[in-house]
Structures are given as structure tokens and as C-alpha cells.
Design a protein that fits this description.
With 255 residues, the chain is mainly alpha-helical. The protein contains 8 helices and 2 strands; from the N terminus they run αααββααααα. The protein has one domain. A hairpin with a 6-residue loop joins strand 1 and strand 2.
Length: 255
């Protein structure tokens, strides 16, 4: 029994289009592409998602043609843009933890992050782990897989793909990282600012006091208290950031 090359390409084309979009997403998105996962597990996730989503991406386009190569690049761009927006939401919360650590004097405390293999402040890593757990607890992984499946209906392979407005929307979303981080860190930063103002008044009233020996441990202790009190509102802040992220991801998926 022989199989012609054209028939084989036709059978594999849908799987390859799904592989391009899913692979682009998993290379950029948090959790799915975290380096803390072994390479075999990450590859297994991509293969399983590709097999599940490939029936949604049938096409008659020749993969080896110029239009086929351009379509594959566009599939990777669509998946990568969706994963990048999700990554921005995670980084906004993580950067808020970094701002809190700098305000309370823990900006120098850094460890190697298992998710990026780079040195990051410990509070930033703490917030990253916490937002990852919130994402999984709120079934975010299932929602994003459903979003990828719906994107094959609204943006099938061979369609126009992302337009200029979508790309500018991704660029504008980068600025939301700083506003989102400020929303996460503002309660603790405000409390620590009041503590520093109190130390400033104390230094004026008693210039002989060694504020470096007294103020530093008090700032750290008050910072942990403010951090503990601020954790109660982190879920609401993350929910609002994630809602804005979902709206942009649906726009990118053509929904």
C-alpha cells in the first residue's frame, strides 16, 4: 500500500496548523511554557493540545508553498500573541511584589527563579506563585484552551490573521503592566510611606538616634504586616487584571 505525498500533506496539514498556533502559545504563556517543567512534559502538553485541536483546523492549503509558510508564521504569531497577553497579566502581579519588596528594603533579596532561570526578588517570585495558583483555581487553563479552540473557528488557517490594530493593542497592553503592578503594590507602599514619614519626623526630633539600626528592622516588620493585610485584596485585583486580559485575548482570537 502506497500513500501519495499530496495525500499525506493533506492529512497532516490540519495537525501542523494546530501545532503552529499551540506551539506559539506554549512558548510564551506562563505555566504551559514554564522552564520548571521538564522538556518532555512541555512537549507532551503541546502534542496533546495539537491532537485535540487539529480537527478544528482543516484546510486545503499546500504547506510547502509560499502561502503555506506565511500561514504557519501567522499561526505562531496568533498563538504567541495570546500567550504574551496572558504573560503580561502574570508579570503585572509579580512586578507589584517587586515594588513592595523595594519599599520595605527587601529589594536586594534575590533567588534564581525556577520559571525563568534568572535572578528575581523573592517577593516577586512569591506573587508569581500565588497568581499561578489563582489562575489554576479559577480554571484559567481550561478557559484559555477553550479560547484557542474558538480561535480556529473565528480565525481559521489561511485567514487574514492579526491586523495592525491588534498589534497596537498588544503594545498598549504593555503599559498596563505598570498600572496593574501599582494597583497590587499601592496599599503596602502607602503604609510603608507613612512609616518612613514617621521616621523622618523622629529623626528631626531626635537627631542622635541611629535610624539605620532602628528603622530598617521596623520597616521590614511593618512591610510584612502590610503585605499580609494586602493579600486579602489580591484576588480581586488579579480578577480585574485577568478580565481585561481575557477581553484582549478574545479580540486577538477574533471573538
Amino acid at each position: 500500500m502506497t500513500i501519495e505525498l499530496s495525500a499525506l500533506i493533506h492529512m497532516l496539514s490540519g495537525m501542523l496548523w494546530a501545532l503552529g498556533r499551540v506551539g506559539g502559545f506554549c512558548m510564551v504563556a506562563p505555566i504551559f511554557g514554564a522552564t520548571v517543567l521538564p522538556a518532555r512534559i512541555r512537549a507532551a502538553i503541546i502534542i496533546v493540545l495539537t491532537l485535540v485541536l487539529s480537527p478544528l483546523a482543516p484546510t486545503q492549503m499546500d504547506l510547502l508553498s509560499a502561502s503555506g509558510v506565511a500561514t504557519m508564521v501567522m499561526q505562531m504569531l496568533i498563538g504567541g500573541s495570546i500567550g504574551f497577553v496572558l504573560q503580561l497579566v502574570f508579570q503585572a502581579v509579580s512586578y507589584g511584589g517587586i515594588l513592595i519588596g523595594q519599599s520595605m528594603g527587601l529589594g536586594f533579596a534575590e533567588l534564581i527563579s525556577p520559571t525563568s532561570n534568572t535572578s528575581e526578588p523573592v517577593l516577586g517570585q512569591f506573587y508569581m506563585v500565588m497568581v499561578s495558583l489563582l489562575f489554576l483555581a479559577m480554571d484559567g487553563h481550561l478557559q484559555v484552551i477553550s479560547l484557542l479552540a474558538d480561535s480556529f473557528r473565528s480565525l481559521p488557517p489561511g485567514a487574514t490573521g492579526l491586523d495592525e490594530k491588534s498589534l497596537w493593542a498588544i503594545v498598549a497592553a504593555g503599559g498596563d503592566v505598570f498600572s496593574g503592578a501599582l494597583r497590587v503594590a499601592l496599599p503596602a507602599m502607602t503604609a510603608l510611606l507613612l512609616v518612613n514619614i514617621g521616621f523622618a519626623a523622629t529623626s528631626r526630633a531626635s537627631p542622635s538616634m541611629n535610624l539605620f539600626a532602628v528603622g530598617f528592622p521596623i520597616s521590614i516588620c511593618m512591610g510584612f504586616v502590610a503585605l499580609w493585610l494586602g493579600l486579602r485584596g489580591i484576588a480581586n485585583t488579579y480578577s480585574s487584571l485577568q478580565a481585561a486580559g481575557w477581553d484582549l485575548m478574545r479580540h486577538l482570537a477574533g471573538l
